């Protein structure tokens, strides 16, 4: 007999669609604990989402509703398109139709969870991996226990007060950051032993095969969290600062299940697949062992796509990747200049862990073993100049990766190293050159947490202005070649730097390069959300990482145009 019904909702309307992996994880854990679980997925009903919610809640009475927020916005400094306003509209409709408490989680939510619990007006929130905390919350509601006994749960007390139930003993030495959950490992929040149930075509579940047919990729998680401390990355805080490694057997079981359903392209959703490389090698060995032991195993059809860092990456790892069926490697090298990487791409001890030679070796190893590559750079960190940007372009183009991608500008979040540093520099009384938002109505002056009334106020300022209007805070190095008026304006657009970046890449080489775009500079938009090239890809039946097809985009777009109804 079921303990009660938990409804899980995916409010993500972005296409090409990305399967809400988190809801499969939560469904698995809650079901094994004896709860009935339904999923209402709005991705494929984004035009009629109100009627989908109404139809469900007119028939069913959940005891708890969970909503996943994968992204707060596009995280694209030249676009700055928020999603949380659409999510709030959906959550408000849910609350209008049911008295059940609502809890929100997800990686995007976890970047600013206190502010979003308050903004959404929900009862609870979960920062980081949610399966065990959500299970404990459901158990508490079912048994009549107070939710404020659920370790790690965020509780909305109203009036702008959101608190977190500490999973540890609070002492006089506990800092406000620690109370907010900053700097935790979160391994205790992860179900590391079970193989998550990934289903297709099952009513009231995530339809993984449908997502694959409309998005071209499946997903697989081998570990949660990241032990590194890169200054621009949300994951060590949002997911936890230690690796929560899943059982190798459970992960490969899950991969076999997905492949047996016809989902043959699997992308790793780890922070980076090669960090904690011994575990990654063991997983690849288990894939290879099963393939050798059973020539009918669905693993023979798997094409693996991975994110990784330039190091560690050795010959043995490349061999294992190739034998396991890896098709492509996306490496976030970010820059070539040592002074740019120092203090930015760092270990937990604050030391850099790679240089350009590591990226050079990675590309050579991958190509030698038949795997394609994408190398990515991120421009705009403090100290970036036209010269450092041009040098990075030149050196990365020399690598002859399959595709080279360049991004310019950074979206700031409350608990990344750069965001916290800039808040300290502003100190609530001054702006800092480089702070920018397309919708700013005055100088952007951030406060450190110590000057705020609490985490809600601290987090809100990275997405909203003082009047509650959207103001997504970004950063561009003020040493880039912009006019003083651009650098001095909170709404200044770094279009001159963008134009010079485009001009530095020869037109004859642009077929293998992704460049940041603004309206009027190119017909190709490199942002993921509702991207015409990506939607054309999936419409024509292409699968795999979208960058794998980038060199052929002109022909693909022409083919899509010819196939479009007239």
UniProtKB/TrEMBL annotation:
Pfam families: B12-binding, Radical_SAM. GO terms for biological process: methylation. Its cofactor is [4Fe-4S] cluster. Gene3D superfamilies: Cobalamin-binding domain, tm_1862 like domain. Residues 210-465 form the Radical SAM core domain. Keywords: Iron, Iron-sulfur, Metal-binding, Methyltransferase, S-adenosyl-L-methionine, Transferase. Residues 3-148 form the B12-binding domain. InterPro entries: B12_rSAM_trp_MT, BchE-like, Cobalamin-bd, Elp3/MiaA/NifB-like_rSAM, Methyltransferase_Class_B, rSAM, rSAM_horseshoe, rSAM_sf. This is Tryptophan 2-C-methyltransferase. GO terms for cellular component: cytosol. One of its GO terms (molecular function) is cobalamin binding. PANTHER family: ANAEROBIC MAGNESIUM-PROTOPORPHYRIN IX MONOMETHYL ESTER CYCLASE-RELATED (PTHR43409), SLR0320 PROTEIN (PTHR43409:SF16). It comes from the Bacteria.
């Amino acid at each position: 007999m079921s303990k009660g019904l938990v409804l899980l909702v995916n409010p993500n309307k972005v296409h090409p669609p990305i399967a809400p992996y988190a809801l499969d994880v939560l469904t698995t854990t809650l079901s094994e604990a004896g709860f009935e679980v339904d999923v209402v997925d709005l991705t494929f009903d984004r035009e009629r989402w109100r009627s989908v919610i109404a139809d469900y809640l007119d028939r069913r009475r959940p005891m708890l509703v969970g909503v996943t927020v994968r992204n707060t916005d596009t995280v694209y400094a030249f676009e700055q398109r928020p999603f949380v306003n659409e999510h709030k509209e959906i959550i408000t409709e849910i609350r209008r139709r049911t008295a059940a408490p609502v809890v929100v989680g997800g990686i995007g939510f976890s970047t600013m969870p206190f502010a979003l619990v308050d903004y959404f007006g929900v009862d609870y929130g979960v920062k980081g991996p949610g399966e065990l905390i959500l299970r404990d919350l459901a158990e508490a509601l079912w048994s009549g226990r107070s939710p404020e006994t659920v370790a790690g749960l965020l509780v909305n007390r109203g009036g702008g007060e959101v608190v977190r139930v500490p999973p540890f003993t609070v002492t006089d030495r506990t800092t406000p950051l620690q109370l907010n959950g900053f700097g935790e490992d979160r391994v205790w929040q992860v179900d590391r032993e079970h193989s998550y149930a990934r289903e297709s075509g099952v009513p009231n579940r995530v339809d993984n095969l449908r997502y694959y047919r409309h998005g071209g990729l499946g997903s697989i998680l081998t570990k949660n969290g990241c032990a590194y401390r890169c200054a621009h990355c949300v994951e060590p805080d949002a997911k936890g600062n230690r690796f929560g490694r899943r059982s190798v057997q459970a992960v490969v079981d899950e991969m076999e299940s997905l492949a047996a359903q016809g989902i043959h392209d699997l992308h790793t959703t780890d922070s980076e697949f090669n960090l904690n490389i011994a575990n990654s090698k063991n997983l690849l060995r288990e894939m290879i062992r099963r393939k050798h032991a059973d020539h009918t195993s669905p693993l023979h059809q798997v094409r693996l796509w991975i994110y990784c860092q330039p190091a560690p990456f050795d010959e043995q790892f490349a061999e294992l990747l190739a034998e396991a069926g890896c098709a492509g490697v996306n490496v976030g090298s970010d820059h070539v200049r040592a002074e740019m990487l120092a203090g930015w791409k760092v270990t937990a001890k604050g030391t850099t862990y790679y240089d350009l030679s590591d990226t050079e070796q990675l590309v050579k190893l991958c190509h030698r073993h038949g795997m394609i590559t994408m190398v990515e750079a991120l421009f705009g960190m403090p100290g970036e100049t036209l010269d450092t940007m041009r040098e990075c372009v030149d050196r990365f183009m020399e690598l002859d990766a399959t595709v080279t991608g360049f991004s310019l500008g950074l979206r700031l979040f409350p608990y990344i190293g750069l965001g916290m540093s800039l808040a300290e520099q502003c100190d609530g009384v001054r702006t800092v050159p480089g702070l920018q938002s397309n919708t700013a109505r005055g100088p952007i002056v951030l406060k450190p947490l110590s000057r705020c009334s609490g985490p809600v106020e601290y987090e809100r300022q990275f997405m909203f202005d003082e009047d509650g209007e959207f103001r997504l805070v970004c950063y561009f190095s003020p040493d880039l070649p912009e006019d003083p008026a651009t650098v001095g304006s909170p709404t200044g657009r770094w279009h001159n730097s963008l134009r010079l970046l485009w001009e530095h890449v020869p037109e004859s080489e642009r077929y293998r390069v992704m460049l940041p775009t603004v309206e009027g500079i190119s017909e190709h938009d490199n942002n993921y959300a509702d991207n015409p090239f990506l939607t054309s890809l999936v419409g024509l039946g292409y699968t795999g990482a979208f960058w794998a097809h980038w060199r052929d985009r002109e022909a693909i777009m022409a083919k899509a145009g010819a196939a479009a109804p007239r």
